[in-house]
Amino acid sequence: MKQLLIAFFFIISIFAHGQNLYIKTYGNKKNKTVIFIHGGPSGNATLFEGTTAQKLADLGFYVIAYDRRGEGRSADPNATFTYNEAFQDLNAIYKKYHLKKATLLAHSFGGLVATLYTEKYPQKVSALVLAGALFSQQETYDHILNSLKKKYSGDSDQLNTISSIEKLDKNSSEYRKACFSLAGDNGFFKMPNPTEESKKLYDDYAASEFFKTNIRNKIAPVLFYQNEKKNNIDTRSSLKKIKTDGVSIYAIYGKEDGIFSTEQISSIRNIAGKNHFALLHNCSHYLFVDQQNDFLSHLKKWLK
Asked: What is the pLDDT of residues 245-275, one digit of tens each?
């Protein structure tokens, strides 16, 4: 009952485009606003909502979760899947909820969206939290493939597969998909030693209504690479600029997130700063589930 009272569901209209956008809010709107930006393209916010959104709100935040246009529950056959389109939707959320500033909590590909948005609209962002967020795409792809070449050093079939992927156009959806598919097949996104708490969270999510609406638009990455010129980027220069603009940057990553190299993690730690960085042990890509308590503890410490 409590959750029904404080979690409100909205389908809002993007006024300039007549587009419906899935949004759900958690907590008291008088509290500091945190907007969760999910991964993708083709992702959604269901895992975060089904496991973590209400618990973050219970710490004293007003949490807004939404699915980007054309992804998840925000169906739109005319979506172009460009960064500018994502910015338009974020600006519509700001307008709908009368927000002057908000914290952006960005996961995976959402980190690219949030970073570029913050660079363009620094006056609208009080803090940027990179949670297992992408920031140097080609380094991520190289790390995945190089790690697997070491793993399969004596397996000619696997090495031939990796070699064929390396020959693909680096700015294509096929290359991105092939790299992440290999990463998924080899457990790069899974925590090494699941705890009882994390297993329960994943199990409860699998049995929830959120899992039933875990909608994936398979053509979203194809259209993104077709329509967006910034399709294989490194945002570290943007992050440095954001920091000079006065926006606080925080970074929290899983130590066993297989898609990031040690060098990448060190570089993002240097940008965020020692007191604005956390590396969670026994934790992979979905850190808000793998090590939820530690994840929430750091957010509370940083943002409150």
From this structure: 999 999 999 999 999 999 999 999 999 999 9
Q: For the chain, give the number of residues.
A: 304
Which of 8-12, 86-90, 109-113 has the lowest average pLDDT? 8-12
Is 18 contained in some domain?
yes
Q: Which domain holds residue 215?
A: 2-137+189-303
Q: How many domains does the chain divide into? A: 1
CATH code of residue 33: 3.40.50.1820
Question: Is position 234 within any domain?
Answer: yes
Let me know if residue 259 belongs to a domain.
yes
For residues 182-194, give the mean pLDDT. Answer: 96
Does 264 reside within a domain? Answer: yes
